[in-house]
DNA sequence: GGATGACACATTGCATACAATGTCGGTATC
DNA sequence: GATACCGACATTGTATGCAATGTGTCATCC
């Protein structure tokens, strides 16, 4: 088994992602420790790490509170993603490697096979394939810090759940953009790949903000 | 007095910046705790935070090791800074506020007064003023995450010491670029401000890499 | 009735003891 | 002589107890 700290970190992150903890709610160390079957020490370290990664906020002498996302937060995160994901894919296009290309291709195919079925299970698969695709780019880029930063920006709750807000046309476009990026990288055209990535992230931003405006803000909170 | 954790964090960060710990050296929890007069618990938390911020690397079951910088690391960091500092200053130029402008102006004047004397004390002042100037921009930008990321990218050792590598002309140009950014922000011209910032950071990158190539790589390590 | 202070409680901060893990040296074996 | 194994030591990982801090309530005073 992994270490208690790692287990606490992963469990808490999953719960923050799936909405177990309402935004703003107070996460008490002792309570979490009891639930996870470990002591407060690894829980404390997990909370500190989740704080650094933006999942929650630790206030000195008061404890951890599940993060409350504002529209401005979401806009900032999508903008930073557009900058950094484009930066990463431009590097990837400069020095592509076969393993990474295979991973990207596999992610594309996985998503495309699931696409026709528009149910929730299909969306799970597509969402997972999406993460794989982007992660493959981060790794191929060889930019370790950029990758670390993106990991903390792209993982938080609303990013993972955003796929539910896409309509069929939006999903189709998203998958097509993945294919286009793959083509651009194989062609070694960094400017092309970067431009598609910027469009890709901005499209996601638009879908998300549109969903928020149309009263599905609950999805943000969750 | 601040908390033990905060004190440990600040002390260790300062030591990592001033070269007390050689790159790659093993930082033992108990030893640090004894030196700082606190227990291992706050030291552990400080080490974890320094790991997240890129000052050192914590290997599970093995402990913390002072980070060893490669040329590729430095190039990546300067490139990310160029992206993110420009992003921040573009936001700042869109919505400038008087307090931030005053802080930037004060930082410019502080550096300019110290500039003619080219000794080490003057460089200290200029380096400090530089940090103040950039921090003022980050705060004015209103981009909280961008600011957090930049703080961890811009602080590490070689950033703080890079001023020693500038010649008089380079320093002069750096100060002029600060003034130009201030002018651009006051004019509300985000594109202008962003462009100057990109040039500013890339100039710093060139100076640094030049120093490394010319055998002053020791400065990197320190 | 509203404001203020003190006290009790809940919770986090820190210290310390013990357990688990990794490293390094020595020894036996091939 | 090289290598694999074993065990002692050093170090980190985790649990737990106590101290410090913050919060909410209740009584008291204005």
From TrEMBL, chains A, B:
CDD domains: WHTH_GntR. Keywords: DNA-binding, Transcription, Transcription regulation. It comes from the Bacteria. InterPro entries: GntR_C (IPR011711), TF_FadR/GntR_C (IPR008920), Tscrpt_reg_HTH_GntR (IPR000524), WH-like_DNA-bd_sf (IPR036388), WH_DNA-bd_sf (IPR036390). PROSITE patterns: HTH_GNTR. GO terms for molecular function: DNA binding; DNA-binding transcription factor activity. It comes from Roseococcus suduntuyensis. SUPFAM superfamilies: GntR ligand-binding domain-like, Winged helix' DNA-binding domain. PANTHER family: GLUCONATE OPERON TRANSCRIPTIONAL REPRESSOR, TRANSCRIPTIONAL REGULATOR, GNTR FAMILY. Residues 2-69 form the HTH gntR-type domain. This is DNA-binding GntR family transcriptional regulator. Transmembrane segments: none annotated.
